[in-house]
Design brief:
This protein is an alpha+beta fold. 25% of the residues lie in helices and 38% in strands. The protein folds into 2 domains: 309 residues, no CATH class; 31 residues. The N and C termini lie far apart (124 Å).
C-alpha cells in the first residue's frame, strides 16, 4: 500500500469513528482501554476488565463506573481484528472480586492520649463492517478508506469527535486495527447508575489490552485487570515512568456453585491472575502486553490494616495517683502517731 493510500485510509477511518461517536457539543474522557465522548463531563472512577485467552481468541469483558450526569455518550475501543460484541452479566465481576480479594491482617497499635486523630494516610470504500443493537448499546465496527462514505456518515449522524482523541486513534489505524464504536443509551437517564458490562472477542496472536487512548484523559486512570488463561500471566506497564501495576492474585479456578456466572464460562480448571494499577495519562505510552509467566506459583496479596486502640493508662492514671498519694499520707500519719505515743 502506498503512503498516500495509507494516509487516506487513516483519515477516513478516523472520520468514520467521529461519525459514530461524536456528540454536539462533545466532551471527551478516556478510560483505560478506550475513550468516551459524552454530552456532559464524565470521569472514570473505576475500570474493571476480564481478559480471557483461549488459543488465538481473546475476549475482553469491560465494566466502567463513571461519575457523570451525562444522558448521551459513546465509547471507542480499538481492536486488532474484527470483533464480536455482546452484553455480559454484571455478576461476573462481583464473583471475581470475592475469589481474588486480598487477605486482610489487622495490626493493633495502642495510641497514647485519648486516641483522637488518624493514623498514616493511605484500500476500498469506507464501510461499517457491523452495525447492531444489543441491550442499551448500538454498536458499529469501522474500517475503510473512502472519504465520501465517511462524509455521508458524518452528515447522517451529526456527530463530532475531539481533535486529540482523533489523533490518538492514528497509531492504531497505522497498525491495521479496527475501531469498535459503541453508542450508549442508559435506560436510567444518566450514566451515574452504570451500564451492563460489554464483551468483545477477536482473534490475535499477541494478547493485548489497549491503553494508548488513555493518554488523552485528564484524570488518573484506575484499572483492575483480570486475566483468565491456561497459566499465570505477566503484564507490561503501559506507563513505564509510573508505578508498576500490583499483582493482587494468582491461582487456579474451576467450576464452583458459589460462582455460577464465572463457572458458566469455565470448561475446566483455569488460571486467574489479577492486577491493580492507577496510571497517570501523561505517562501512558503503550498498551498492556500479556505474556505467560515463568511460574504458576499461587499468590494472594496481604493488606495490613492498622487499628489504633485507645490506651487505658491515661484514664486510670489519675485515680491510681490519688490512691497512691492517699496511701502514702496515711502511712505518714500512722508513723507520726506512733512517734507521738512513744514520746
Amino acid at each position: 500500500m502506498t503512503f498516500a493510500r495509507m494516509t487516506v485510509r487513516i483519515a477516513a477511518v478516523v472520520a468514520l469513528a467521529v461519525a459514530m461517536v461524536g456528540l454536539n457539543p462533545a466532551i471527551s474522557g478516556a478510560c483505560a482501554c478506550g475513550a468516551f465522548v459524552a454530552n456532559d463531563k464524565l470521569r472514570a472512577q473505576q475500570e474493571t476488565a476480564l481478559v480471557e485467552l483461549s488459543g488465538r481468541t481473546e475476549s475482553i469483558t469491560l465494566s466502567v463506573q463513571a461519575r457523570s450526569t451525562a444522558t448521551q455518550a459513546a465509547f471507542l475501543m480499538p481492536v486488532p481484528a474484527r470483533a464480536r460484541f455482546e452484553v455480559a452479566d454484571g455478576a461476573l465481576f462481583a464473583e471475581l472480586d470475592r475469589i481474588s480479594r486480598p487477605e486482610v491482617k489487622v495490626r493493633r497499635v495502642t495510641a497514647e492520649g485519648d486516641g483522637a486523630g488518624g493514623g498514616p494516610q493511605a484500500g476500498g470504500g469506507a464501510t461499517v463492517v457491523d452495525h447492531i443493537e444489543i441491550g442499551p448499546y448500538e454498536v458499529a465496527q469501522l474500517a475503510g478508506t473512502d472519504t465520501t462514505a465517511v462524509t455521508k456518515w458524518l452528515a447522517d449522524n451529526d456527530f463530532t469527535l475531539p481533535t486529540a482523541l482523533g489523533g490518538a486513534l492514528k497509531p492504531y489505524l497505522e497498525e491495521g486495527w479496527l475501531v469498535v464504536a459503541v453508542r450508549l443509551a442508559p435506560t436510567s437517564g444518566s450514566l451515574s447508575a452504570g451500564l451492563p458490562p460489554m464483551r468483545l472477542a477477536f482473534e490475535t496472536d499477541a494478547p493485548v489490552y489497549p491503553m494508548r487512548l488513555s493518554a488523552t484523559a485528564e484524570d488518573q486512570q484506575p484499572l483492575r485487570l483480570y486475566v483468565l488463561a491456561d497459566h499465570r500471566v505477566d503484564i507490561s506497564n503501559p506507563a513505564p515512568e509510573g508505578s508498576t501495576p500490583d499483582l493482587t492474585f494468582a491461582g487456579e479456578v474451576k467450576p464452583d456453585p458459589q460462582y455460577p456466572t464465572l463457572s458458566a464460562a469455565l470448561t475446566g480448571t483455569r488460571f486467574l491472575t489479577r492486577y491493580d494499577g492507577d496510571f497517570a495519562p501523561a505517562q501512558i505510552t503503550d498498551d498492556i502486553r500479556i505474556t505467560r509467566s515463568a511460574t504458576d506459583e499461587p499468590h494472594r496479596a496481604v493488606v495490613t490494616v492498622t487499628e489504633y486502640v485507645r490506651s487505658p493508662w491515661p484514664t486510670l492514671a489519675v485515680p491510681l495517683f490519688i490512691l497512691v498519694v492517699a496511701l502514702v499520707m496515711a502511712a505518714v500519719a500512722i508513723v507520726r502517731r506512733r512517734q507521738t505515743s512513744r514520746s
